[in-house]
Sequence to fold (484 residues):
Amino acid sequence: MTKRCPLTTSSGAPVAHDNQSRTAGARGPVTFDNHYLFEKLAHFNRERIPERVVHARGSAAYGTFTLTKSLSAYTIADFLQTEGQKTPVFLRFSTVGGGQDSSDYARDPRGFAVKFYTQQGNWDMVGNNTPVFFLRDGIKFPDFIHSQKKNPRTNLPDPQAVYEFWANNPQSLHQATILMSDRGIPASYRHVNGYSSHTLSFWNDNGERYWVKWHFKTNQGIQTLTNEEAATKPAFGAQQDLVESIDKGDFPSWTVKVQIMTEAQAQDYYINPFDVTKVWPHSDFPLIEIGQLELNRNVDNFFAENEQAAFAPSNLVPGIGASPDRMLQARLIAYQDAQRYRMGANYNQIPVNAPRCPVHHYQRDGAFAGINPAVAGSGANFYPNDRAEQGAPAEVPDVAEPPMPLEQDAWLGIHDNRDDDNFSQAGDLFRLMSPCQKGQLVHNIAAGLHQCTDDVQQRMLAQYEQADPQYAAMVKQAIATYQK
Fold:
């Protein structure tokens, strides 16, 4: 006879009745001693945590990164040293602008966030499926997201706000061109590339620094949908595709590559290497293949693992650092702050976020402290102290990042970079497109732009003209078809 699993309260006490409340008689009211009823309702009222302000809708899975080329000449990062090394990972895909109730097939960038559980802590590569971004300075990020969300009065999509923001911020043109192209709606999460987008850094055991961009090239090939095809798909289609493909053993994978630039090259390069609105030409900085990433296990509990997953670009490990990228620098504070707001000060103790290596620090208390009992340290809750011989955590000077010089004669102030060549790379991308791709691009742009004021239309056409005259002419013609 199979032993039954007892139903209990959250404190572990067996539950005798789960289908009826205690009442004063068969037709009488519920009594105040219904503590089990109250527990169920009180917990139910608190089941949701605040959804992410961006990247709210997403799906995730576990997998493995296998290093195929040592990067020991460039970095001391422990998981990038020996060919054949395997590092467990957790990868979350997402749309950006919509809430949890939005569609997997929105025309939107796709988040591509990878948590590497290394032996020296977690490294979070928090990127997108595009190699560039809309902005080069984080001070405009809240404004940008507000412009992409629903209208605050009607709660309806607002093309005027979208294009009005872009008309006032030409730095967005490169990314907006990608978004409105055929790649704006991926067919599934398995069929997208991933990019760090930002420039990150490596440093080796000689104290030499290198600048690096990460690329994750899908081995399934790029597949996309038109607006019309996307409209026929269920809102949860990309999530379903990911879960079902892994469940049946069809494990999606990506070839991992990097571009590397020396500090000397960065000083004189004609493109600001820390401008996230621009790519590094592959002809100058070729892709170097370094490994394979495979997803091979679905989450067991969607809320506990996907919704509580917390990524932050500030989760860095020895050998991998940030860069002077203004947008990245803003994200170093914003992401950790967002996670503390959503889940509390100890979100890194939640199993999906917890490092797989020993953790010792002097942070104390806060909500859910002690989820991971290993994060206890010694009896001291301050540093320095006199307890090193008793196992108290101490500094590790060997992993310090080498110093980075500031620009010569740099002055603290507002240095305006809004006009730092916003058009040439967007034009290069347009000229790479086939006639069919150009047709999709201008059709998608005109579908929203024709609803905007004439002033916004004219400023956007001026941007397209600076990128490529044909780009502007095609968009203008496409708008005219809506106005007949």
Observations:
- The chain has a mean pLDDT of 93.
